[in-house]
Structure formats: C-alpha cells, structure tokens
Amino acid sequence: MKIQKCALLWSVLFLAVFTSSAQAAIINYNVVLSGTESVPVNVTTASGTATVTVDDVLDTVAVTMNYTGLTGGNPSAAHIHCCVLPNANGPVVIPFTGFPSTTSGTYSNTFTGVSVANITGIEAGLAYINIHNAVFPGGEIRGDILPANAVPEPTSAGLLTLAIGGLSLFVRSRRVV
Questions:
Q1: Most buried pick, 21, 32, 69, 165, via CB within 10 A?
Q2: What is the pTM for the complete model shown?
Q3: Digit-coded pLDDT (tens) for 142-159
Q4: Domain boundaries, the chain
C-alpha cells in the first residue's frame, strides 16, 4: 500500500512539474486603456478594457476589447505596439483588422503567425494597445500589456492544486504509519 501511495505521489508531482510548463504557454493579460496611459498623457474621458491571450506554442495572440467614449472621433487605427520599455512609443506589430469605426464598441480577433520576438516582447511587458483617431493621432487611449496583469491559464492552476493535494495525502499517510 505504501508503494502505491508513493507511486501516486510521484505521478502527481511529475504531471504538475512537466505538464504545467506546456500548459503555461497560454497566458491571459488584463489591460486597462485610458488617456493617462498615453505618451504623452491625453485629457479624455474615454476608457477601455481588453483581455490579451498569448499562446507561445501556437504563436497566436487573441484580443477581446471594449472601449467607450472616444472624444477625438471615430478610431482611425488600433493595434498592439511592441517592443519598447513602458512609457515609450514603439512600432505597430499587430494591426487590429476590422476594428469598429465608432466612438464606443467591442472588438475581438485572434492573430496567427505572430513572430516569436513579438510574443516574447508581450510576455516581457514591452507591449501596449493603442486606439488612434483624428484628434489624437498618437493614440487617445492606451493600455500596457504587463505581466503583473497576467492570469495563469486555469489548467495550470488545477494541476498545481492536484499536486498540493497529492502531497498533503502523502504527508498524512506518513504520519499515520
């Protein structure tokens, strides 16, 4: 019986350590867009939120965004800029094709074939989302895609919980004997 419990424990730990790294390839970032994040800062009441999901195995970046109250008019462009330090302006690397031309709206798209350099830049916190228009050609609202805003993919958290549970069972079984 002890051997079976030990084998179970090692199996759980093996799965937690070696499969979670593959699952960790999917990371969700929560982004808040505002004029105060723009460089230079803009005075605007516009705001937005986005979820950016990066899969560094499939080289995809998915964006789901809501924005409201653009005061500078309809968007002329929206995209992800990369790979620069926070509070700096960088080149466009992922243009948001099919972005709505309204002062408030939603947007969702998955971009495939994203370069490893751009995915690495996003994961390192060197990228941001920007919405541009006629009054604010440099961008009315902006939001940095920062690792501090990252949410682990749920499967990884589940595996970690399973590993901790297996470890606690193992420790309890050792005390009983």
A1: 32
A2: 0.73
A3: 999 998 777 655 555 554
A4: 28-153
